[in-house]
Amino acid sequence: MSETVNQPQSDLGFEYNPYEPGFDANPFPIFRQMQEKAPVYFWNTAQAWLLSKLDDIVNLMRDPRFSLDRKYWEFFQPTTFKPEHADYVLMLDNGLWNVSKGDHARIRRLVGPAFSPRAVAKMRDLVQQTVDSALANFEGQEIADISTGFAEPIPMGVMCKLVRIPDEAVPIFRAFAFALLEASSAWIANDEFDRIIAPVSPGVQLLRKLIHERREKPGDDLLSDLIRARDEEAKLSEGELISLVNALIAAGTETTTDVICLAVYNLLRHPVQLQRLRSDWSLIGKACDEVIRYDGLGKVGVPRYALEDVEIRGTKIAKGKMVIGLLSAGLRDPEVYANPDVFDITRDNSNSPNYGVGAHICVGAHLARLEIETAVRSLFERYPNMELVEEPTFGRHSYLRQIASLKVRLNRS
Question: Which one of 80, 104, 192, 282 is at 20 to 30 Å from 335 when CA atoms are compared?
Fold first, then answer.
C-alpha cells in the first residue's frame, strides 16, 4: 500500500473551513477545488479525511471496512455522564448509530413498513392538513419568514400526529426533540450540556407515559404499532422503542425543514424554472430532488472510522482514522452530472443518493419527500407572486447549512 503524506494546506491554495463566514451561503467553490486538487483531503481541524467525489462517498457508505461506531476512532475516549443524564444515555446506547449491525437491521425492519410508499400515501391528507395549518400563520402578513413561520412547524407537526401526542403535551415533545438535535452539535461547551439536555428527561418520561397508555388502549398510530412489535413479538426493548422515536424525530424534522427553505429559495432565484414548475406540477418531485442535489444542506457528513488500513485514490487511510464523505460536494461532481452547477428541475436524479445508500438510507425518505413536495406546491399555489425580500441568513450549526431566516413578500394577489 502506498504512503501519502498529509499535504500542507498552504500548498493547495485553499483551506476547508465550514465554519468561516460565508461558507454556508456558498460552499461549492471550495468543494470544487477539493475535487480538482485534493479529492482525498486531510482536514487538520478534525483530524479527519474528507472525500468529495461521489463514487468515493458512495463506496464509503457501503464499505464494511468502515464503521459508524465512534469507539473505533483513534482518539475515542468514553464519556462520563452524571446520574441525572441516565435518560439521555439510554437513548445513546440504544440508538440506531450505536447498536450492532444485526440489531440495526432488526429495528429498521420493524419501522420500515410504517414508512413504505404505500403507508406514506395514506398520510397525504395528514400532511396536507399540517401544511395548511402552517400556511394559516401567514394570514394578514405582507412580509413572512418561510423558515420559522412555515417550514419549521410542518415535519414536527406531522410527527406529533403520527405518534399521537396529546395537544397539551406537544410543547414537552417539541422541547425534547430540539434538545436532542442541539445536543448532537459539536459546538456545545461542557458548561452548556446540562442546560441543553434538560428537556430530555421530561420527554422520555412523556414517552414512557404514552407507552403505558397505548398498552392499555392501543390506537391506529405509529407508537401503538411499535408497542405491539415490542410486546407481542418481543422485537424491541423498551430502550430501543424510546430511542427509535428519538431517531424518527432527529432524522425527519430539521433536515426536512431546511430542504423546504432551500426549495423556496432556489425556485424564487430561478424564475424560469419556477414558471416551468407552475405550468407542470407533475415536475414537483424532480424539482425537490434537484434542490437537494444542487444546494445540498450538509457541510460536514456523517463520520465513519476505518477498521483496517484502507487505500482511496492512492492515499493510505490508517486504521482508526475518521473519514467523512461530503455528499453535498459529491452531488455536484462533474464526472457524474452534466452541467452540475446548473439548477434544472427536469434533471433525472433517480439514481442520486440524496437520502443515503445501503443500510443507513433514510427510513423516512418517502415521508420527507411528501412533506417537502406538499409544502412547496401549496405555498406557491397560495402565493403565486411571492418574492424574495433578502438573501437567507444561516444559523450556527455543526454539520448543516441551516437556514435561520428566509424572508419573502407574499403578494397573494
Answer: 282
User: Residue 216 carries which side chain, given as an amino acid letter?
Assistant: E
Helix, coil or strand: residue 375: helix
Residues 39 and 323: beta-carbon distance below 8 Å: no
* Structure-model confidence comparison of residues 358 and 121, the more confident one: 121
Sheet holding 143-145, edge to edge: 143-145, 407-409, 387-388
Is residue 330 within 8 A of residue 52, CB to CB? The reply is yes
Contact call for residues 61 and 353 (beta carbons, < 8 A)? yes
Do residues 131 and 391 make contact, with C-beta atoms less than 8 angstroms apart? no
User: DSSP readout, 94-160?
Assistant: HSTTTS-HHHHHHHHHHHGGGGSHHHHHTTHHHHHHHHHHHHGGGTT-SEEEHIIIIITHHHHHHHH
CA dist., res. 105 & res. 110, Å (int): 9
Nine cell digits for residue 1 = 500500500
Contacts of residue 66, defined as CB under 8 A and 6 or more positions apart, other chains included, come to 60, 304, 305, 306, 307, 310, 323
Q: Residues for the chain: how many in total?
A: 413
In angstroms, rounded to a whole number, what is the distance separating the alpha carbons of residues 129 and 133? 6
Reported as a single tens digit per residue, the pLDDT across 215-258 is: 889 888 888 888 876 666 656 777 778 887 777 776 678 889 99
Q: How far, in Å, CA of 119 to CA of 97, rounded?
A: 25
Cβ atoms of residues 307 and 66 within 8 Å: yes
Can you tell me the distance from the alpha carbon of 400 to that of 259, in angstroms, rounded to the nearest whole number?
A: 11
Q: Which residue in the block uniquely carries the three cell numbers 468514553?
A: 78
Report the Cα 3 to chain-centroid distance in Å: 35
Q: How far apart are the C-alpha atoms of 113 and 366, rounded to whole Å? A: 11
Write the pLDDT tens digit of every residue in 102-132. 666 777 777 778 888 998 999 999 999 999 9
Q: Cα(9)–Cα(48) distance, rounded to whole angstroms?
A: 14
Per-residue CA distances from 401 to 6, 298, 364, 393 (Å): 27, 6, 20, 10
Over residues 241-253, the pLDDT tens digits come to 888 777 777 667 8
